[in-house]
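Raw record, unedited: TetR/AcrR family transcriptional regulator
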Amino acid sequence: MTKSQADEANGQRRRATLSRDAWIVAAASVLERRGISAVKIDVLARKLKVTRGSFYFHFKGLKDLHESLLDTWRTRNCRPFEMIAERTDLRAVDLFNVVCAVWVDERPFSPSLDLAVRDWSRTSRKLAAEMSEADDLRLTLLKRSFLEMGYSEDESTVRARTTYFHQIGYYAISYAEPSAERKRLQPIFADVLLGKPQ
């Protein structure tokens, strides 16, 4: 077997074993680092060391991949808050702590994916509306927690926004902090953000 034949055989094996998820993971990595405009078939094929044919084995086209990326974001970054909203056992401080734990634990929440989709949403009205809905749910959960702690309507709104914007800011400036340190400081952040109703 010649070298070119061996390379072709290796490429075919690679195509056969490369999964749809591998493409999505590679695409998410590009999305998070360079934005949606950089998520291109040729770029991903080079990154994965396969031909374009491998892509079309798994996806109908780029739009299909884009939707898969959004499904990943919905599962990792939206579903945890939807599950909290469905719970009836969480009240006041407990609700606040469970919401914040999604961000602090980052399991499965992905800050970099959330920021990338937020940037992407600036180019799509449909996605902007979906991102707005995600923001609204997160803010609603926080506001509910403050209302149940006894704060007024307006103060609950402001405290919810302060908590949420603080969280987004953490990611927006790419603040580097070891996970253990962030978890250590979380109770202090909570004390500051919760305060005491007047």
